[in-house]
Protein 1
Amino acid sequence: MSGLRARQKADRHRRIIEAATALFRESGYEGAKIEVIAAQAEVSIGTIYNYYQNKGDILGAIVSLEVNEVLNAGRGVVARPPANVGDALDTLIGIYIEHSLHYLSKEMWRQAMAISTQLPNSPFGQAYTALDRSLTDQIRALIARLQAIGLVREDIDGAALGELIFNNMNMMFIEFVKRDEARIPELRTAIRRQNRILVAAIGV
Amino acid sequence: MSGLRARQKADRHRRIIEAATALFRESGYEGAKIEVIAAQAEVSIGTIYNYYQNKGDILGAIVSLEVNEVLNAGRGVVARPPANVGDALDTLIGIYIEHSLHYLSKEMWRQAMAISTQLPNSPFGQAYTALDRSLTDQIRALIARLQAIGLVREDIDGAALGELIFNNMNMMFIEFVKRDEARIPELRTAIRRQNRILVAAIGV
DNA sequence: TTCTAAAATTGAGTCAATTCTGTTTTTATG
DNA sequence: CATAAAAACAGAATTGACTCAATTTTAGAA
């Protein structure tokens, strides 16, 4: 019987994530003390460290939820892309960016990104890299789809192009979260302008 | 007379940076305790914090040295670029990448990047952003030069293109420092492959 | 040379993440 | 239902970055 123990475990996980999400949003990542998260989740400090290797991993679990939602939303665009290369890219990237601040504040993103570079081999570091990879793959899938439809030249190196587009978008997003006053519409406009160069180069 | 006081100050700065560089390389950023840096530099803990706002700023000073060297080396390429768009980009990017591990280990880069996203408004965060900006500007200058020579089409949006190339390179470099086993030649090959798409699009 | 205000240094103390060890709870077995 | 091993928990102790009030050093005026 794996009953009680497993149930309690899942329950504690949930309580910790809920408490942390609330506190991160409320007081910021640094401001949310482990002691307080523990109290609000009704577990001890030791238990938190039994579930997560460090404070960053708690944030990591929250980031994963967000990115997986974004990936899901992106699937629809890849399946039925707008009938124009520029719009197709803009729509997919739009989904990524518009969703991005749904659960996570800019400060939470900054911390998450920082931790993922700081500790690339921690559970969260690896998970974050995998998420980036999934996003890159989704952009590549869109390009492949556009090639299949005949909107993008067949001789284009889709794998390299997908990386190029993702890397540029991601870097722009990093700069975006670094500046509290930066706004989404301007971010999207800037990325559109950059992608225009590519769109001109790859269209049939 | 600005003598003694200024001299001692410069001397202490130098000793702190020297001690920190050695210890960061030896024990890693986390492993290098402020207490030990202070002892090795023959100043007190408090003095270190009088010179630098936090541990990250010490690393920041070292990063600035490195990046400024790279920027200097890049000037030569911009002044007399190879007579071919692909080679010109590859040469400039080659300089950036080949220099990058001269003073800084991958671990130091990871920390520096992490801090710059984590605390974008700290002295170091701002300096790091400015350095990125300078590198972007240098790539833009190269493109402008190539346009002047007639190797790149005049109607290309040079500003956006420069960002695109820098952002992609930078993101590739971030992934590179995140993986200890990653090697420079493979990094350069991958970036060359990505840039090939652009080169094809922008050549006259 | 002597003296004083300003500048700089010092290191013990604070604070919060993480570790560690003893205790409690759960499970499985007879 | 008793019990021993395994798993999970608790929270006091540790650790290391950073602060701050007291002390020392320097500059330069008298």
Protein 2
Amino acid sequence: MTEESIQGGQILEGAGKPDGDARPASTPRHRRGRPPGGAESSAYEDILSAARYEFSRNGYDKVTMRAIARRAGCDPKLIHYYFGGKDELFTKVARSIIGDSHLIDFFIDQDAKRGMKDGRSLGTTLLRAFLTFMETTELGEAYLALIRNAGQNEHVRDLMVALVQGELNGDQLKAIRTDKVEKRMVLVGSQLLGLIMVRDVFRVEPLASMPVATVARTIGPTLDRYLYEKLPI
Amino acid sequence: MTEESIQGGQILEGAGKPDGDARPASTPRHRRGRPPGGAESSAYEDILSAARYEFSRNGYDKVTMRAIARRAGCDPKLIHYYFGGKDELFTKVARSIIGDSHLIDFFIDQDAKRGMKDGRSLGTTLLRAFLTFMETTELGEAYLALIRNAGQNEHVRDLMVALVQGELNGDQLKAIRTDKVEKRMVLVGSQLLGLIMVRDVFRVEPLASMPVATVARTIGPTLDRYLYEKLPI
DNA sequence: GCTGTAATTCACCGATTGAAGAATTATGGT
DNA sequence: ACCATAATTCTTCAATCGGTGAATTACAGC
């Protein structure tokens, strides 16, 4: 149940790393020892992107090492060879997802331009960008996966907390022009997270089918208040 | 890893059903056939509450039938005997959790009193009640578990959607004194869910340690707006 | 007292999983 | 040429899982 069966062949191409094919697929790939071909033909990257793909779509528990290996087109043992156990692999993948993010930079950028914008408020602009990012980019999908996992997997939970607290508490926070930044950011995070859960994880109507712009205009003022208005905290 | 090992004996009493001990524990419980004692000594209830306890704390996937049986103090086969497979058991448990809820009634009750309240707004009052409910009652804990699971388990997700949409869309909705009730309720739900996630699932500071009253006063106005102010939807 | 049925445990099964050992093949440095 | 080592697969293990068939015991109706 819930299985979906990935089934040997044809595993929707174009999911993993952007470059078309890492291996010509002409080599039978079924020979014992080290494969011929230049140095940088290692399966390391294949495994990493296969793992990212699998974890992103199926969470932590449901993903098997064998499935990752199948997608990477290699033997399961290779995963243990390069990374350690499943935990270590997952941690590596999750960190890479978080590490790739430029969402915060984007936010700060928008914040700097505050005031000299058109009709839209910062909250609205932020929401628009956030939703677009989450729903259209590959990285956004990966984030969605992290969120899906966070409830059950402690590794993910810690990473999420680190993302919201740690990664956000650096010099970046000082750049945001408001007071009590940590508290305000957590409030913003709570609304963003809730929105994403209801809209993209649970897919509750009518929010799920609502255009991004409408959602942004509706919820934007909430973020504005969390960010810049006087709060009783 | 992440195992916790429930380990044979002493499994923190007082978790399942409220009545102290369903079985004297004097009977060795290790005999083959039907146990002696009056008719209503069946393990049915034991299993149900054990399952609720396990599912609430460990989600769906991580919980094994064997663990439930261990906690219920019976053989795993009995679970299959009374309920069918794991799915059926879980569905039964989840439905019972949702069925027990009176949160919506409470909300409507508060809504009816709107206007003739003291200083606090409805949003603030609602939040105060919601947080208290979630963080202090046994049922609230069960809900938290459902939320934790919702990201990964389709059964739970469907139940959550049913809860937010189905259970909420009945006659109850008509009792709420505002327009576009469905849309407004989903917005409220998004903020409530996000708050619960950040505060009680991820436990992100400073929200996690913030007193309920402070949180309510801070986020309450958001709910007020979602409920009663004019929205661009 | 006999008997059908409800309640319970025991002993397994097949599948799957993460992991480790050993074998095999190519590469690169000397 | 030679050899350490990197890269890869094959085989296998021990554990665990959900689930099933059959045995065992008590109760309830006759």
